[in-house]
Automatic annotation (TrEMBL):
This is branched-chain-amino-acid transaminase. It comes from Microbacterium laevaniformans. It comes from the Bacteria. It is an enzyme of class 2 (transferase). The modification N6-(pyridoxal phosphate)lysine is found at K211. InterPro entries: Aminotrans_IV, Aminotransferase-like, B_amino_transII, BCAT-like_C, BCAT-like_N, BCAT_family.
Length: 376
């Protein structure tokens, strides 16, 4: 499940050129913004920008003021959607240090997404270095309140200006950061889910397993349909009526005998939250199964009492119990149980340094005090 990253021998270190934001927020302004940040609306003072070209490879790594990008109107991403992204958080521990969670996994996933979208693969070491470089200048933006974190958004897109259909020869990789509070105010309250039967988010052999904007674009209309139906989120099925995911969160089923089942298919995005939660559950002795779960198995399992808990998970919201599944001609109340909350608590205790990290999942992003880094 968890693989340790072996650095590429001979990989040149990234030397970031740092341009300070002269209009950076004052400490007082920043503290004000960190009181109660709404998800994804406030951004830090700086961003990472690394170029890639066929001829030059990865080059010109920069830390620069956060601000608009200048893009040719013919940039390939605007026409053909050659784009991928990641989502990962930085957590402030009680001693003030800043950590992130399994960044090697996000780095590897960015590489898998890149392969599928015919984009260049950023070395995992560069991925982790880019997060550290941003924290070196914007570390003060990592909030310290309960359930708060700094959401990091690495992304990559085709910026070459041309209207031909082929992989772009010029690409940009960026990281921006946004302080966030608890995704669900007042704890993880159960969410209601709309079963999308008219729309799919991905297909066999498509881009469902890649973290790419196009999958999200395909999910917006069904998500709007979910809102119209009074639901919080939408769940997608594949062509064989097997459960896929919510389009931004993976789904997990808990069975009466303690077995935990999660849908497995080539068109589901492999969540790192899901992988971590299943590892914690396995540590507790739960049997874990990754396999196809049909919508009929879900509905009849809930009706018979065979399924005792259903929850969704992902970096942004961590864990969300599913309270209702609504379809065209049914509304199924979902059983609520203790596992979603207790696994969520165990995971966040590790992330915030309140519990021992026995799996070696945490990576420190800031420079320990007294060991001033070269990036400052
Ligand atoms: C990011 C994402 C998830 C959750 O992945 P995590 O690594 O747990 O954050 C699930 N589904 C989709 C489509 C995603 O983009």
């Amino acid at each position: 499940m968890s693989l340790t990253y072996e650095p590429d021998a001979g990989l040149a270190p990234l030397e970031f050129t740092i341009t300070r934001n002269l209009a950076a927020k004052s400490a007082a302004e920043r503290e004000q913004l960190l009181v109660d940040p709404a998800f994804g609306t406030t951004f830090t003072d700086h961003m990472i920008d690394i170029c890639w070209s066929v001829r030059g490879g990865w080059h010109r790594p920069r830390v620069q003021p956060y601000g608009p990008l200048s893009l040719d109107p013919a940039a390939a991403v605007l026409h053909y959607g050659q784009e991928i992204f990641e989502g990962i958080k930085a957590y402030r521990h009680a001693d003030g240090s800043v950590w992130t969670f399994r960044p090697d996994q996000n780095g590897r996933r960015l590489q898998r997404s890149a392969r599928r979208l015919a984009l260049p693969e950023l070395p995992v070491e560069y991925f982790i270095e880019s997060l550290k470089a941003l924290i070196a200048v914007d570390g003060a933006w990592v909030p310290s309140g309960a359930d708060q974190s700094l959401y990091l958004r690495p992304f990559m897109f085709a910026k070459e200006a041309f209207l031909g259909v082929r992989p772009a020869n010029k690409v940009g990789y960026y990281v921006i950061a946004s302080p966030v509070g608890a995704y669900f105010k007042g704890g993880a309250k159960p969410v209601s889910i709309w079963l999308s039967e008219d729309y799919a988010r991905a297909g066999k052999g498509g881009t469902g397993a890649a973290k790419t904007g196009g999958n999200y674009a395909a999910s917006l209309l069904p998500q709007a349909e979910a809102y119209e139906q009074g639901c919080d989120q939408v769940v997608f099925l594949d062509q064989d009526r097997n459960v896929e995911e919510l389009g931004g969160m993976n789904v997990v089923f808990v069975y009466k005998d303690g077995t935990i089942v999660t849908p497995q298919s080539d068109s589901i995005l492999e969540g790192i939250t899901r992988d971590s939660i299943l590892q914690l559950a396995a540590d507790r002795g739960h049997k874990i199964e990754g396999r196809a779960v049909s919508i009929d198995e879900w509905r009849s399992g809930v009706a018979s009492g065979e399924i005792v808990e259903v929850f969704a998970c992902g970096t942004a919201a961590v864990v969300a119990p599913i309270g209702v599944l609504k379809g065209r001609d049914f509304v199924d109340e979902q059983p609520l149980g203790p596992l979603a909350q207790s696994l969520r608590d165990e995971l966040t205790d590790i992330q915030y340094g309140r519990r021992e990290d026995t799996h070696g999942w945490l990576v420190r992003l800031d420079e320990p005090a007294g060991d001033a880094g070269s990036a400052a």
